[in-house]
Each structure stands twice: as structure tokens, then as C-alpha cells.
Design goal:
123 residues
């Protein structure tokens, strides 16, 4: 899929390596039968050292959304909703490199970046 690439540990020298975990979601029908399984790999941002990378608090998004809804309700404004498919996966990041250590059972290191080929050429 091109979202991440395995790189050797020496390429992460001097960079912070964050852990990750798998999140599984199981969807069932009204009778309790399994219909769909989904899995996603998430970074454990709580391992981030202060000052190493800028803080990105997801709680701020919820507060901003509630404030926006309150303003729209107060002034009787119309709102439109859009769905951006894979917006997080395809969004550019400011940092050149983000390294992630795979879950237990894996001995590799993952690399995330704006573009894998651009990132590796800068190393």
C-alpha cells in the first residue's frame, strides 16, 4: 500500500522510536453473527518525549468541534459535512521522519514520511 516501509535500526539513530499496537474492530449483525473485521495500526503517542515532536492533542479537535457547533446554533448558521477518505493516511506531515517500533513478535522498524522515496534519499 505504500503507507510505511521497513527500515534498519541504524537509520533511526538519534531519532525517537515510538511503539505501536493493533486495534481490532468486529462488526456483527442484529443476530450477533460476525459480518466484518477491521484492523488498524496506531502509534502510542503517549511514549513521545516532550519537546521531541510537536504535541498534537486529539482532545482539541473535540473541543473545537463543540465550539463550532455552539456558534452555528447561536447564529442559526447552515453547516455542510464532508467525508475525506483516507485523509489521515494521505496527509503530509511536517517532520521528515517518524519511526515506529512494531508490536511484540516483530523485530523490524517502520518508517513514516511524506514520501518514502524522498525520505530515504535524505538519509
Amino acid at each position: 500500500m505504500g503507507t510505511f516501509e521497513e527500515v534498519p535500526w541504524k537509520k533511526a539513530a538519534g531519532k525517537q522510536v515510538l511503539g505501536c499496537k493493533w486495534v481490532f474492530v468486529y462488526k456483527t449483525d442484529k443476530h450477533g453473527f460476525l459480518q466484518k473485521c477491521k484492523a488498524r495500526l496506531v502509534v502510542c503517542g503517549n511514549q513521545q518525549k516532550e519537546g521531541d515532536l510537536p504535541t498534537r492533542a486529539t482532545t482539541l479537535a473535540g473541543l473545537s468541534f463543540r465550539a463550532l457547533m455552539a456558534i452555528a446554533a447561536e447564529f442559526d448558521l447552515e453547516l455542510e459535512q464532508m467525508d475525506a477518505v483516507n485523509a489521515f493516511v494521505n496527509s503530509p506531515i511536517d517532520e521528515s521522519f517518524v519511526f515506529e517500533k512494531l508490536s511484540m513478535g516483530y523485530a523490524a522498524l517502520l518508517f513514516f514520511g511524506n514520501s518514502i522515496s524522498q525520505g530515504l534519499s535524505r538519509l
